[in-house]
């Protein structure tokens, strides 16, 4: 089947539109998160989103509308824990992640049995994206991109030196909260397609790939965005052609590009 025929299917069109936007948002947010050593928060939020989606299905609510405020609240909590010297942030994130994941599995097992619902939420499914999901994804992703661009310089400042930013009068807590909200929105939107177990890879891999190739914050951000979109499109195409899971195939594409960037970086170091 040709690519033209492939993209004539409505569910592929929906997956492509939502996936590109979510991948772009995840990559842009991934750069400051990785540099601030907050990348595991994305993994924790994905598990919280899984639990929230499961509860929403059990109660008959619209999953995305129910999950977004829950995950945003969890993002504030995890960010507060990560900034607190009295807590072990890694342990706290692990507790929240495991608890939310267990809650989601228990709820689904009691309402619909351990069927394909678990696979769809854990590992994602392009068939899970309805028109309403895509419409909401487009609106929220546009808001995430607009806010990231609008506050780019402030996000840059708090990423590299919070103490100096605070001394200059910048409301560091406010922009850390903004970063948490944008990350929470992106995680929830990507969950239906990538799944709870794989969505955090969209945050981490593109940033790590770009950091192997560039040094400036702007160059890393732009490279991460481009790499994420390319890997998603490649993963979606290979997934459809080879009948493999979309989420896992997209992660494999990101891993391949990351390993290639590591090789390029090693060659550069060898020449100097």
Main sheet record = none
Proportion in helices: over 70%
The SS-based structural class is mainly alpha
Q: Tell the overall outline.
A: globular
How far apart, in Å, are the first and last alpha carbons?
Answer: 47 Å
- Give the integer mean of the pLDDT values: 83
Assembly form of the protein: single chain
Rg from Cα: 19 Å
Proportion in β-strands: under 5%
SSE string? HHHHHHHHHHHHH
Number of strands: 0
Give the uncertain stretches in residue-range form.
Answer: none
Specify the number of helices: 13
Summed up, what is this model?
By secondary structure, the protein is an all-alpha fold.
Report on this structure.
With 272 residues, the protein is mainly α. It contains 13 helices and no strands. It has helices at 3-6, 10-35, 39-59, 63-83, 89-111, 116-123, 131-150, 152-160, 162-167, 172-194, 200-213, 217-242, 246-271. The mean pLDDT is 83.
SSE topology sketch:
Blueprint: H1 3-6, H2 10-35, H3 39-59, H4 63-83, H5 89-111, H6 116-123, H7 131-150, H8 152-160, H9 162-167, H10 172-194, H11 200-213, H12 217-242, H13 246-271
């Amino acid at each position: 089947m040709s690519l033209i025929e492939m993209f004539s299917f409505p569910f592929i069109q929906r997956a492509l539109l939502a996936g590109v936007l979510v991948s772009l948002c995840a990559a842009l947010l991934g750069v400051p998160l990785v540099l601030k050593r907050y990348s595991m928060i994305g993994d924790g939020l994905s598990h919280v989103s899984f639990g929230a989606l499961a509860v929403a299905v059990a109660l008959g609510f619209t999953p995305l509308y129910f999950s977004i405020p829950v995950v945003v609240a969890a993002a504030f909590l995890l960010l507060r824990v990560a900034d607190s010297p009295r807590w072990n942030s890694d342990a706290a994130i692990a507790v929240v992640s495991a608890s939310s994941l267990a809650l989601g599995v228990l709820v689904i097992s009691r309402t619909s049995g351990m069927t394909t619902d678990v696979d769809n939420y854990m590992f994602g499914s392009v068939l899970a994206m309805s028109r309403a999901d895509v419409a909401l994804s487009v609106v929220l992703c546009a808001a995430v991109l607009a806010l990231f661009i609008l506050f780019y310089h402030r996000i840059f400042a708090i990423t590299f030196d919070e103490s100096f930013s605070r001394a200059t009068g910048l409301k560091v807590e406010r922009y850390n909260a903004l970063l948490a909200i944008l990350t929470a929105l992106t995680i929830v939107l990507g969950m239906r397609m990538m799944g709870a177990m794989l969505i955090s890879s969209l945050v981490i891999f593109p940033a790590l790939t770009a950091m192997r190739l560039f040094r400036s914050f702007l160059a890393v951000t732009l490279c991460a965005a481009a790499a994420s979109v390319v890997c998603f499109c490649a993963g979606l195409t290979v997934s459809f052609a080879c009948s493999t899971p979309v989420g896992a195939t997209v992660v494999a594409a990101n891993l391949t590009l990351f390993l290639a960037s590591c090789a390029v970086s090693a060659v550069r170091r060898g020449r100097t």
